[in-house]
Amino acid sequence: MRKRRILQSAFPILLLSILAVQALAQAPERRYAPPKPKYTVRVERSVMMPMRDGVKLSTDIYFPVGAGDKLPVILVKTPYNKKLFYRNDWVGAYLFASQGYIVAVQDARGKFESEGEFLMNSADAPDGYDATQWLATQSWSTGKVGTYGCSYLGEAQYLQSTQRNPHLAAMVPQAAGPIKYRYFGVTDGGAFELAAAFGWMMGYGTKVTLRPPAGFSDDFYAKYGDMFNPAPLLPKVNYEESLASLPVIDMMKKAGGPPTDYEDILSHGPGDPWWDTLNYVKDTDKFNVPALHINSWYDFGVGETLKLFNLMRTNATSELGRDNQFAVISPTTHCKSELATAQTMVGDRDLGDAQFDHWGLYLKWFDHWLKGAETGFAQTPKLQIYVMGKNEWRGENEWPLARTKFTPFYLHSDGKANSRFGTGSLSLEKPGDESSDHYSYDPKTPVPMVGGTICVGCALGAAKDGALDQTDLESRNDILVYTTTPFEKGLEVTGPLELVLYVSSSAKDTDFTAKLVDVYPDGTAFNVQEGILRARYRDGYEKKVLMKPGEVYEVHVNLHATSNYFGPGHRLRLEVSSSNFPRFDRNLNTGGNNYDEKSWVIAKNEIHHAGKYASHLILPVIP
After folding, report:
1. Which CB contacts under 8 angstroms, 24+ apart, belong to 91-95?
2. Annotated active-site positions, please?
3. Which portions of the chain are predicted below pLDDT 70?
4. What is the pLDDT of residue 493?
5. Is the Cα dihedral 555, 561, 562, 567 positive or negative?
C-alpha cells in the first residue's frame, strides 16, 4: 500500500459531491440534470434557531423571490458546515429554493456556528423535531416541512423521524442506515470499521470549535461569519502508519487529531447501553412519515437502508406512513447515486448506463407531499433497483422480492481451498465426507482491503472503493476460495445475503470475513459484497462468549444485500478469511478488548463443510 497523507484542510464529502454535480450537470452524455431555476434566491444568513434546552443552532434560510407569501420548507441538517451550500447553485439549497421551496440549512449542534456540544447523532432526533416545529410555525411557512440530505444528513433524518413531528410531511434520506448495532456505520458484525471511523473522526468529528466571546448578539455570524472559520486546522497524518499502529484506541491521539468521540465508540462494544443514549433506530421505534430511501449497492449502509424501508412501513402508526415508503437503489458508491453517466464505472467495474432521474424524482416527491401537486408519484414502483450485470433498472414492490428462492450453496474441498489455486468449490450439492479447510490468521500480516462497500476514499482520499479485481489478493494462502462452475444460463442474486459457517479455532476469539465475488469469463474477479463476524458475538451482541480451542461453532456472517446477475460464463465465488484491513480493525485473537492491546497471537482457524457441519452460503436467487 502506498503512503498517502491528509491535507491540512479535510475536504468534506459534500464539497466533492457539489463539484461533481456541477461538472456532470453540463456533461453531454447525461440524460438527466438538475432542473433549471424558476426563481432567484435570497439568503438570510446565520439565523440562530432556539432548541428546547436553550441551545441555538445556526441556520441559513433560502427564500425563492416572488414564489408566494407562504411556502413549504425543506430542512437540511449538516455537521459539514452549512456554508458549503452557499452559492453552489446545483446542489440542495439553491436547487430546491429555485423551484419554489424555502430551504433551511442548519449546522448540527456543536458544529461550526451552532452552539452546544457535538456528540455524533445524539441530539439529531430532538433537534430535528424542534427545528421542524420552528420552521412550520413561521409566518412564511405553510406548516409542511420536508427533509433532505446524504450520509450524516440522511442519518439525521431517520433519527428525527422516530419523534413523529406532525409537521414533518416527507423525507429523502440518502446513503444512511443508523440502526442499532450498526450505529454510525462504525461497527459491523461486532468488528470496528476502523478506516472509515478514524478518517471521519479525524476530518469531521471534532468536538471543539472556536466561538465568539460571551455577550455577542445572535447576529454576530450573520454580520461577520465569512471572516472566520471555526473548524480546526488539521495536522498532516500518515494514513498507512496511523492505521497500522497499536493500540487502536491511541491512534487518534498519536496522530495529533482533535478531541472527538473516537475513543468512546471504540471502548463501548456493540451491546453496551452507552449506545442507547445516542438515539439510534431500534426495531421498536414508531414512524408516520412518507420516505423516499436512496442508497447504492456499493455503499456500506444499503442493507440497513432496506431494513428501514421495511421497518418504517411495518411500524407506521397510520396508513400515511405504512403505504408511502419508496426506495431507489443504484449501483454506485457513497452519495453518488445522482452522478451515474452513460458509462457508469464503479471502481474498475463497468456497469453500463445507470443514469436515473433522481433530481426529477426528488422534486415530484416534494411537490406531491409538500405542495399537494398531482405528479403521478402514486404510480411509481415502491422499490426501484439497478440489477448489476444485467445493467438495467427494474421496478419491484417489496424487499426481499416475493419470488425469491433462498438457496444454499455448499462449500466443498478436499481440505485444500487455500487461495484461488486451491480445490475449493461451491455447489447446490450437500457435502459428503470431506476434509475441513485450515488457514493461519496472523494479525501482523492481515488480508488487505481491496475495494469494497465503504467510503474510505471519501473520508481520507486514501483508498479506492467500489469494485476492484481481487485476483492478486486471492493468491494468499490465508484466504479460502470457493467457486462455482461457469453458469450456462446465468444466475440473478437479488436480496439479503448470509453465510453460515461451522468453525473452530486455536484462539479464544477471532474474526471470520466473507466476500461475494463475480468472476468474469476472462478471470477478472470483481467484489460484489462483503461482511464480517467477531466470533465472541456469535450468540448476540448483548454478551461475549469466547471459544474453546478445537470446539466447533456455528457462526452467521451478514453480507448485507445486493442485486447482481452472474451472466453466462461467469462464476460465483466466495472468499473466507479472518481479516479485511484496514476496513475493519484486526482481531488480535487474545479474547481481550482488542482496542487497548498491543500484542497478539496467531489463530489457527478451521472451516468445516461435511455432514452436520455443512457450511453454506444462502443466496437470494431470482428465478
Report:
1. 91/14, 91/17, 91/18, 91/21, 91/22, 91/34, 92/148, 92/149, 93/60, 93/62, 94/37, 94/41, 94/62, 95/34, 95/35, 95/359
2. 151, 299, 334
3. 1-29, 87-91, 454-463
4. 98
5. positive
